[in-house]
Design a protein that fits this description.
alpha/beta; 37% helix; 13% strand
Length: 411
C-alpha cells in the first residue's frame, strides 16, 4: 500500500544495484544542506498546474551501425521471436505455460505504487529495448512496457483473475481508436465532448471525472469485449473467464477514475478510505524530473500498447514465481527463439516468497531465463516509513539479474 503525500526524492546506489530512496525531509533543509531543490511529488489529487509537464520524449532514431569487427569475432545471434503470435498460438502458449489458479490477499485490479515511474530513467540507461519484458500484476506493467519498447511481454501472476484482467485490457486496447475511447470503455462512461487524440492526460481525466457511469453502455461494452475475444480472436473462453472479466470490469464501471487498490475484493475489501492512489493519480504521475511516463501519458504510448496487444505479443500466464512450471516454461520458449529478457518487474512478490520460505525456488526458476549483463529486476520494497502508515511506502529500484541470481542457494 502506498502513502499519499508530498515527498522528496534522493537516489542512492548500493553496490551492484540502482535504488531510489525517498525522504520526507523538508525542501528548505535539503536546499541549505546540498544546494539542491527537489520538486515534490504528491499522490493526493490536486489542481493541475497551469502548464502540464511534457510527456517523455520518444526514443531517438537508431544510431549508425558500429564499425566492422574483426573477421574472427562471432556474429551476434539474431532473435527469432515472431512479429506476432497467431490467435491459436497465443491461447496455446498461455495455457501450456500456466499453472493451476492460486490466490492472493487482494484482487490487485490496479497498482498502489504511485512512484513507480521514478526508476524509469535509470532503467533506460541499462536495459535494452526490443527484447522481452516480464512482469506481474496489472496496469503498471504497461507503463514499464511503453518505456522499454520490448518486442514481447509476458505477465506471470499467481491468480487467474489477473489473466482475465489482461484479457479485458487486450480487448479494450484493440477496440479503441484513441485514449479517450479507451477510457470511455474502461470506465463505462460516455466520451465527453471536446476530447481529441492529442488531449493531455490531465485534460482527459478531468473530463471523465464529471461523467456518471452508464449501466447500459457498460453492458454493451462488456458484451463487445467478450465477442471481440471469442469471435475476432477465436479464444475458447470458458464460463470461468467470462465471469472473471465481468467481475473485474464491474469495479472499473462502478468507481471509474477514482478506483483504488483497496476498493475490490480480498484483503481490505471496500477500503476506499485508505490513503491510496486512484487510477487518475497513477496515470497523471511523473518521474522525479516531472516527466509524464504513464502508458496513457501520450498518444504514442497508447499506440505502442495497442499494437503490442493487436499482435498478441503481450502474453498473460498463470503461475507462482516459485512454482514448478510457469517461469521455467517461459524461459525455455524464449531460448528457442534466441530472445533475452530486458527487465523483470517483481513488485514486492519476493516479500511473500521469503515469508513462505520459497524464495530459493523462485531464484532457481529465474536462473532458467535467458539474460545478460544488461537484464534488470525491477523490485518494489518498503523503506523510509511515512506518517500514518507503519512499515513505510513502496519504492522501486533496479538490480542486475545476473548478480542477483548468483545468490541462489546462499539464502
Amino acid at each position: 500500500m502506498m502513502l499519499l503525500g508530498i515527498r522528496d526524492s534522493v537516489r542512492i546506489r548500493p553496490a551492484g544495484s540502482t535504488v531510489l530512496k525517498r525522504s520526507l525531509a523538508s525542501l528548505s533543509l535539503l536546499a541549505a544542506f546540498a544546494g539542491l531543490v527537489l520538486a515534490p511529488a504528491s499522490c493526493a489529487r490536486h489542481a493541475a498546474p497551469a502548464a502540464e509537464p511534457a510527456p517523455a520524449p520518444q526514443a531517438a532514431s537508431a544510431p549508425a551501425p558500429p564499425a566492422a569487427v574483426a573477421a574472427s569475432a562471432p556474429a551476434p545471434v539474431r532473435t527469432t521471436l515472431p512479429d506476432r503470435l497467431a490467435d491459436d498460438e497465443f491461447w496455446k502458449l498461455s495455457g501450456e505455460f500456466s499453472e493451476p489458479n492460486g490466490s492472493f490477499r487482494s484482487d490487485n485490479l490496479l497498482s498502489n505504487e504511485v512512484w513507480l515511474q521514478y526508476v524509469i530513467p535509470d532503467l533506460l540507461n541499462v536495459a535494452k529495448a526490443g527484447r522481452v519484458y516480464m512482469g506481474v500484476g496489472p496496469e503498471q506493467n504497461f507503463t514499464y512496457i511503453t518505456a522499454l519498447k520490448p518486442a514481447m511481454a509476458v505477465i506471470v501472476d499467481i491468480r487467474r483473475g489477473n489473466l482475465d484482467l489482461h484479457l479485458m485490457y487486450k480487448a479494450l486496447f484493440e477496440m479503441s481508436a484513441d485514449r479517450a475511447d479507451f477510457l470511455s470503455r474502461l470506465f463505462a462512461r460516455k466520451r465527453p465532448e471536446g476530447l481529441s487524440a492529442s488531449s493531455g492526460i490531465r485534460e482527459l481525466f478531468t473530463a471523465f471525472e464529471s461523467v456518471a457511469p452508464d449501466e447500459q453502455y457498460g453492458r454493451d461494452t462488456f458484451d463487445a469485449m467478450i465477442d471481440h475475444l471469442k469471435t475476432k480472436h477465436g479464444f475458447p473462453l470458458g464460463d470461468e473467464d467470462v465471469e472473471g472479466i465481468k467481475y473485474v470490469y464491474g469495479y472499473f464501471q462502478q468507481f471509474g477514475p477514482d478506483l483504488t487498490y483497496w476498493m475490490s475484493g480480498g484483503f481490505g475489501r471496500g477500503g476506499g478510505f485508505r490513503n491510496s492512489p486512484t487510477y487518475a493519480d497513477l496515470m497523471e504521475g511523473t518521474d522525479a524530473t516531472g516527466t509524464l511516463r504513464s502508458y496513457l501519458a501520450s498518444p504514442e504510448n497508447f499506440a505502442f500498447m495497442k499494437q503490442l496487444e493487436s499482435r498478441n505479443m503481450l502474453l498473460p500466464v498463470v503461475g507462482n514465481f516459485a512454482g514448478p512450471k510457469a517461469i521455467r516454461a517461459v524461459g525455455a520458449w524464449l531460448k528457442t527463439h534466441n530472445a533475452f529478457v530486458s527487465a523483470f518487474y517483481l513488485s514486492n512478490v519476493e516479500q511473500y516468497l521469503n515469508m513462505d520460505g520459497i524464495w530459493g525456488d523462485f531464484c532457481a526458476n529465474a536462473q532458467q531465463l535467458p539474460i545478460d549483463e544488461s537484464s534488470q529486476f525491477i523490485r518494489s520494497y518498503r523503506g523510509g516509513g511515512g506518517p500514518g502508515f507503519g512499515g513505510g511506502s513502496l519504492n522501486q529500484g533496479i538490480f542486475p539479474m545476473s548478480a542477483e541470481l548468483a545468490r541462489c542457494g546462499t539464502q
